[in-house]
Write a structure and sequence with these properties.
The protein is of the alpha/beta class. It has a single domain (2-173), classed as Flavodoxin domain (Rossmann fold, 3-Layer(aba) Sandwich), CATH 3.40.50.360. The protein contains five helices and five strands, in the order E-H-E-E-H-H-E-H-E-H. Strands 2-1-3-4-5 form a five-stranded parallel beta sheet, with helices on both faces. Helix 4 (116-126) links the parallel strand 4 and strand 5. The protein starts with a strand and ends with a helix. 48% of the residues are buried.
Amino acid sequence: MRAVVVYESMFGNTQRIAEAIGAGVATRLGVETLEVGGAPPILGDDIALLVVGGPTHAFGMTRDSTREQAAEQAEGPIVSKEAGIREWLSNLEAPSAVCTATFDTCFQKARFMGTASRAAAKRLRRMGLPVVADPEHFYVSGTPGPLLPGEEERARRWGKQVAEAAVATFASRR
């Protein structure tokens, strides 16, 4: 059984969280961490867990307009230059046994509003895929970051917990 972590990142904060989540998942499953532009739209039967994450823009997943605004604020290169997780999820084909989890990067106050992870989890549920963990939020101090202290370690722990839940759920669904 394998896992895939697919992320969208503007300034690199979400990428760092995705890599930390991947390290946590790797304690239980083989894992590949992929930027959304390089992620396959069709998942094979050997995938037990799909973790999807991106930055929260305008209380949800990014759109062309919010990605353009982020690019204008960037002091360096943008990580995800093309379509984001919104578009990728629209084209995703996955076996019904694939367990899923979602995460985002946002400001702490955003957890009380709409977030990218909640929107992504809703899409995955509508596709009939089991979501094995509540959407998780990892916090940045400002639009370009940086991540708040301790967030990468928290992401590793969360990734391990999600992998454990997925292994148990995947086994019972096959």
